[in-house]
TrEMBL record:
Organism classification: Bacteria, Pseudomonadati, Pseudomonadota, Alphaproteobacteria, Sphingomonadales
Species the sequence originates in: Novosphingobium colocasiae
Keyword field: Signal
Keyword Thylakoid applies: no
Name of the protein this chain belongs to: TraB/GumN family protein
InterPro entries referenced in this protein's UniProt entry, alphabetically: TraB/PrgY/GumN_fam, YbaP-like
Superkingdom in the source lineage: Bacteria
Keyword Amino-acid biosynthesis (UniProt): no
PANTHER family: CYTOPLASMIC PROTEIN, CYTOPLASMIC PROTEIN-RELATED
Signal peptide: 1-24
Length: 290
């Protein structure tokens, strides 16, 4: 599913440039209101796109301008060197591992062989690399370098001006989530990524972008129940657990009176385990305003 591209774009913080005309969009936005007069906003972003996006509608712009603090997943997306160094450090296995082809079921090995050939790697290239890192490396190989540069997260950060930009996690923490996965779940991650062909993945990416541009949260919520996030253990770590932790950070920002503008991946807004639902369950009034 399109989570493949989203996952890699935010985890590896790719750098690039693009000169294509912006695509119009009407992304989803929510207002948060607390009983004590606290105010904030939830803005669902998309981490990558094949062209710039006209994400700042009048409603989104007004909310962003009214905010005193911007909350994002990763604050310094442009520091690719630091992210790469962290990835290299965490990716290195501290114990001997079998060849990558031996870490997956026999029926999945032809797909791995094809992916290795497409990406220009050999099985032996991953002998000292943990399985999660090999999965992300293969998923990233061959992706358009413009995609992450066009991510809306970057645009929101650039629009912050002199206001503080606070990260909910940071790249080191995000990569650490993968590094902390048990080996079985790392292999499930690799297998799930192998099941997404390049052609199908590109079609899913285009579909997700179209859903985001329309603010179609029902369709986005359906996507969060497929592919990687259909695995209960991976879902608990990569989706539900993160949303719970972010909810606490958002509530703290609301209580401080900083009127936070929270800009994170739109998938994290979806369904009963999304941020709007979690904040509503904590007594906040959460209203979709776009």
């Amino acid at each position: 599913m399109a989570f493949r591209k989203t996952l890699v774009a935010i985890a590896l913080a790719l750098l690039a440039s693009c000169s294509e005309p912006p695509q119009p969009a009407s992304p989803a936005l929510w207002r948060i209101e607390g009983a004590g007069g606290q105010t904030g906003w939830l803005f669902g972003t998309i981490h990558s796109a094949d062209a710039p996006l006209e994400w700042r509608t009048d409603t989104v712009g007004a909310a962003l301008d009214a905010s005193a603090q911007i909350l994002v997943e990763v604050a310094d997306l442009a520091d690719g060197g630091q992210v790469a160094a962290t990835f290299t450090r965490l990716a290195r296995s501290q114990t001997p591992l079998p060849p990558l082809s031996q870490r997956i079921a026999a029926e999945d090995r032809p797909a791995l062989t094809a992916e290795l050939k497409r990406a220009g790697y050999k099985d032996s290239d991953f002998a000292a690399m943990e399985t999660w890192a090999a999965a992300l490396t293969l998923a990233q190989a061959g992706q358009g370098q413009d995609d992450a540069r066009n991510g809306v997260d970057r645009a929101v950060i650039a629009a912050a001006g002199g206001r503080p930009v606070v990260e909910l996690e940071g790249a080191t923490y995000q990569l650490g989530l993968f590094d902390a996965l048990p080996e079985k779940e790392q292999r499930d991650l690799l297998t799930a990524l192998l099941h997404e062909s390049v052609v199908e993945g590109e079609a899913e990416d285009r579909k997700l972008l179209d859903q985001w541009r329309k603010g179609d949260m029902a369709a986005i919520e359906a996507e969060t129940r497929r592919g990687l996030l259909a695995d209960p253990e991976l879902r608990a770590v990569l989706f539900t657990g993160r949303n719970k932790a972010w909810t606490e950070r958002i509530i703290a920002a609301l209580k401080s009176g900083r009127k936070p503008f929270v800009a994170v991946g739109a998938a994290h807004m979806a369904g009963p385990e999304g941020l709007p639902a979690m904040l509503a369950a904590r007594g906040y009034k959460v209203t979709r305003i776009e």
